[in-house]
């Protein structure tokens, strides 16, 4: 189906039907699958024969979700996982070994920083953090043992934009894999594989589901790399449930429509915030004032995405006052929902990393992150204005 446009793939790619001929994708709730005989069971387990084996690593509903997301990203293969963080874990554990090295961008999600910087170090995999937008910094950080370059673009929460094509060139020179966390943009706005990345990672919990219902993650890329990730998942088991895969599969059908509407509202909100007294700075790639605005417009199909972060004057006390004054916005660290969410990153999403790391990443006490949903943008403004005008 690769000849079809994005919106058609979002609805039709990966669809398979049973003998019943169901129109909507079926949800297969089973822990295992039966075989006609012992020989077929042996062939399935050895991989000599294609087919379902055990739901930890094979399930028809999960397979449909994986095929559809791979089509949307332009990848050869996809493996779905239980969460976005388990996708990153599976990527690292499936493709790396002790003694190897990761180069990662600053401004990563707090849990990603913890995983790469602390947990993986216990298993002999060291990570060097470099400024997200400094291409030469990636090159300087390369070592003979560098196996992976990992970036998140736009970054969470400051929306720094990494030049994917330029960093991909650095990775190729070094013979390293290049992975991009595409959570903020999704393939509706940005397709990293087309720009030279080897791997795309998703927290499907966010925009791919789109309504804050279930957890999920995914790794998309060339078949040989994804196969290594799959081998880890098959044994270690951080797999997605069929129900969660089914929910995400249905969420993909409206992905572009939601991303376009939410991004348009985010741009309007960012422009409103930028001239508001008491707001020190707005971080949004769609604004001309954003340092990587031109790059974002090229790389993200002319869209700034749906995440707006901004610094308020007065530090934590003032930022918390804005959060606590809202009546409609959901005070939660999740994003990608149809409902607009607000959080204080320094004490939530990035609260477990050191104060020094937060300072290096530019995450101050006055920073707030708003993930714009599908409500009226005028109502979102009014809800924020209660605290900002206090």
UniProtKB/TrEMBL annotation:
Q: Does the keyword Amino-acid biosynthesis apply?
A: yes
GO biological process: one example: 'de novo' L-methionine biosynthetic process
The record's listing under Pfam families reads:
Cys_Met_Meta_PP
Q: Name one GO cellular component term.
A: cytoplasm
**The protein's annotated pathway:** Amino-acid biosynthesis; L-methionine biosynthesis via de novo pathway; L-homocysteine from O-succinyl-L-homoserine: step 1/1
Identify the InterPro entries for this entry.
Cys/Met-Metab_PyrdxlP-dep_enz (IPR000277), Cys_met_metab_PP (IPR054542), O-succ-hSer_sulfhydrylase (IPR006234), PyrdxlP-dep_Trfase (IPR015424), PyrdxlP-dep_Trfase_major (IPR015421), PyrdxlP-dep_Trfase_small (IPR015422)
Enzyme class at the top of the EC tree? transferase
Q: Which UniProt keywords apply?
A: Amino-acid biosynthesis, Methionine biosynthesis, Pyridoxal phosphate, Transferase
Query: What does the record give as EC number?
Result: 2.5.1.-
Which domain of life does the protein's organism represent?
Answer: Bacteria
Sites where N6-(pyridoxal phosphate)lysine occurs are at 206
Task: Give me the reactions it catalyses.
Answer: O-succinyl-L-homoserine + hydrogen sulfide = L-homocysteine + succinate
Q: Name one GO molecular function term.
A: transferase activity, transferring alkyl or aryl (other than methyl) groups
Cofactor(s) needed = pyridoxal 5'-phosphate
**CDD domains, sorted:** CGS_like
Q: Give the protein family.
A: Belongs to the trans-sulfuration enzymes family. MetZ subfamily.
Give a short account of what the protein does: Catalyzes the formation of L-homocysteine from O-succinyl-L-homoserine (OSHS) and hydrogen sulfide.
Complex formation: Homotetramer.
What is this protein identified as?
A: O-succinylhomoserine sulfhydrylase
Q: Which organism is it from?
A: Pseudazoarcus pumilus
């Amino acid at each position: 189906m690769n000849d079809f446009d994005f919106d058609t793939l979002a609805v039709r790619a990966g669809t398979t039907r049973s003998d019943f001929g169901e129109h909507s994708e079926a949800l297969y709730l089973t822990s295992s699958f039966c075989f006609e005989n012992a020989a077929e069971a042996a062939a399935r387990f050895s991989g000599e024969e294609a087919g379902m084996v055990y739901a930890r690593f094979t399930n028809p509903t999960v397979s449909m979700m994986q095929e559809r997301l791979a089509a949307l990203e332009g990848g050869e293969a996809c493996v779905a996982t239980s969460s976005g963080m388990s996708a990153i874990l599976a990527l690292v554990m499936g493709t790396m070994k002790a003694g190897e090295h990761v180069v990662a961008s600053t401004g990563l999600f707090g849990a990603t920083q913890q995983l790469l910087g602390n947990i993986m170090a216990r298993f002999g995999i060291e990570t060097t953090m470099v400024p997200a937008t400094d291409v030469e910094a990636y090159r300087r950080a390369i070592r003979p043992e560098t196996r992976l370059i990992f970036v998140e673009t736009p970054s969470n929460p400051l929306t720094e934009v990494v030049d994917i094509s330029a960093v991909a060139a650095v990775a190729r020179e070094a013979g390293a894999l290049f992975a991009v966390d595409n959570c903020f943009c999704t393939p509706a706005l940005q397709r990293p594989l087309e720009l030279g990345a080897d791997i795309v990672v998703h927290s499907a919990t966010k925009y791919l589901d789109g309504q804050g219902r279930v957890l999920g993650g995914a790794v998309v890329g060339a078949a040989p790399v994804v196969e290594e990730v799959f081998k880890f998942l098959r044994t270690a088991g951080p797999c997605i449930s069929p129900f969660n895969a089914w929910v995400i599969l249905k969420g993909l059908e409206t992905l572009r429509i939601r991303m376009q509407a939410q991004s348009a509202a985010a741009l309007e909100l960012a422009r409103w915030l930028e001239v508001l007294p008491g707001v020190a700075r707005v971080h949004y790639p769609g604004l001309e004032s954003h340092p990587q605005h031109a790059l974002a417009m090229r790389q993200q199909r002319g869209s700034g995405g749906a995440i707006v972060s901004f610094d308020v004057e007065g530090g934590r006390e003032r930022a918390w006052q804005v959060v606590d004054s809202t009546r409609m916005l959901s005070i939660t660290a999740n994003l990608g929902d149809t409902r607009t969410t607000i959080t204080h990153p320094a004490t939530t999403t990035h609260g477990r990393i050191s104060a020094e790391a937060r300072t290096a990443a530019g995450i101050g006490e006055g920073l707030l992150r708003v993930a714009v949903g599908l409500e009226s943008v005028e109502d979102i403004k009014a809800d924020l204005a209660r605290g900002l005008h206090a």
